[in-house]
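assembly run, all chains below
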Amino acid sequence: MSKFTHHLFVCGKCKPSKRYGKGKTHDSGKLRAALKKEIKRLGLKAQVRANDSGCLDQCDDGQVVVIYPQAIWYGGVGVEDAERIIHETILAGNILEDLRIPDERLRCGKAKKAGSAAAESKQEN
Ligand code: FES
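ok done. output:
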């Protein structure tokens, strides 16, 4: 069995953020279904998977989708963006700049470090 080339995680708990575009449809279930539908339609099921996830700790950028192993973070994603993500990012390898969460805003590791520091501080006291 081969590995997935792309694994998309769709946060199921996001609320739309202020960067969320007008006219977009916010619905994580429909978004994931639209991603899966396009993956299936293009015969990519063996290589690409879209799953629900819990909070990805990037809530200010909701609706969030992260793609691994490329670690591409998208925010403000609407149902309308699903086909674009599959065609432009998955197939063509292009980053959608209007959706990309800039690296400097990513919280990856920061919360953990803060939590670890708090835990260490607690142990010292
Ligand atoms: S609720 Fe979606 S990233 Fe936190």
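The chain has one domain: 6-124.

DSSP finds three helices and four strands in the chain.

not gonna interpret more than that til we talk
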